[in-house]
Amino acid sequence: MASHQQQKDLVREQFTRTAQVFGDYAVASRVAEAERLARMVKAGPADLAVDLACGPGTLALRFARHVRWICGFDLTPAILERARRTAAAEGLANLEFAIGDAQSLPFPDTSLDIAVTSYSVHHFPDPARNIGEMARVVRRGGRVGILDIFLPDDLAISAVNTRIEKLRDASHTRTLSCEEFERHFAAHGLRVLETGVEENSRSFDHWMLVAGLKPGDPNYAEARRLMEASIPSDAAWFHPRFEPGDFGQPELLLTNTTFFIAGEKL
Q1: Is pLDDT above 70 for 139?
Q2: Mean pLDDT, the chain, whole residue set
Q3: Please, which residues have CB within 8 angstroms of residue 12's CB and are 6 or more apart in sequence?
């Protein structure tokens, strides 16, 4: 496991390099997910909110349409700049952005109504600390919402999955199970309001592309080898398979399984 500073450096490098390609994908394709999480945390016109590790504004750009004010908070200047441009183009005056570490949010205790994050927990070196920060900054009765990939609580699956994920993106740490998310919520005084699961199929090539990799790259080749080897037993829980693609050529597909969880601070 990298140190916290090394991990922050890896995150900055990854999302500086992929700010455009990843940002275009996330903002365009995750609207329905963001709206689902907004409903789950009961986002309303009086609420003050933060989207931590906001990336290109995946949640913040949608939540701004529901809440009084929201701050998009992230470690990487390049991807925040992309988020700012999108917010300006969409005329979202109640959305601000700030650079910083999600392990230490710059908000007083109980000062916000909502704290959310998307597809970020698997980059955190200490998820408990980040979820604790989310719980700290919301008031009693405030809501915390997370959506992220998840795995079964199985060490063998986690080991293979992590190997593939880290080949694709060196800033990946570890994917949590649903039970781990729920335990972290309970440990920080968050009563679970609702959970949900969605499956999203995508091509292996596109999954690699938005992480900045293409055929011919060594990490692409090794990740594909491992992904194909995992097909018979689904050893990495990507549910990989070949299906007919363009011109009848077989295409490698996988499924990202996403967990939604919303809780209320007691």
Answers
A1: yes
A2: 96
A3: 75, 76
Q: What is the pLDDT of residue 245?
A: 82
pTM above 0.90, yes or no: yes
pLDDT in tens, 48-68: 999 999 999 999 999 999 999
Give the CATH number of domain 4-152+170-200+256-265; options: 3.10.100.10, 1.50.10.10, 3.40.50.150, 3.40.50.620: 3.40.50.150
CA distance 47 to 68: 5
At 127, list the tokens.
């998820």
For residue 245, give both structure tokens. Answer: 């693609």
As given in the structure block, the two tokens for residue 236 are: 């990495």
Query: In the chain, what is the straight-line distance between the N-terminal and C-terminal CA atoms, in Å?
Result: 33
Q: Residue 1 above 90 pLDDT?
A: no
Please say if the pLDDT value at position 247 is more than 90.
no
Residues with Cβ within 8 Å of 237's Cβ and at least 6 positions away in sequence, in order, are 151, 152, 157, 161, 257
Domain parsing of the chain, residue ranges: 4-152+170-200+256-265, 202-252
3-state secondary structure the chain: CCCHHHHHHHHHHHHHHCHHHHHHHHHHHCHHHHHHHHHHCCCCCCCEEEEECCCCCCCHHHHCCCCCEEEEEECCHHHHHHHHHHHHHCCCCCEEEEECCCCCCCCCCCCEEEEEEECCHHHCCCHHHHHHHHHHHEEEEEEEEEEEECCCCCHHHHHHHHHHHHHHCCCCCCCCCHHHHHHHHHHCCEEEEEEEEEEEEEEHHHHHHCCCCCCCCHHHHHHHHHHHHCCCCCCCCCCCEEEECHHHCEEEEEEEEEEEEEEEEC
What is the Cα–Cα distance from 37 to 63, expressed in whole angstroms? 9
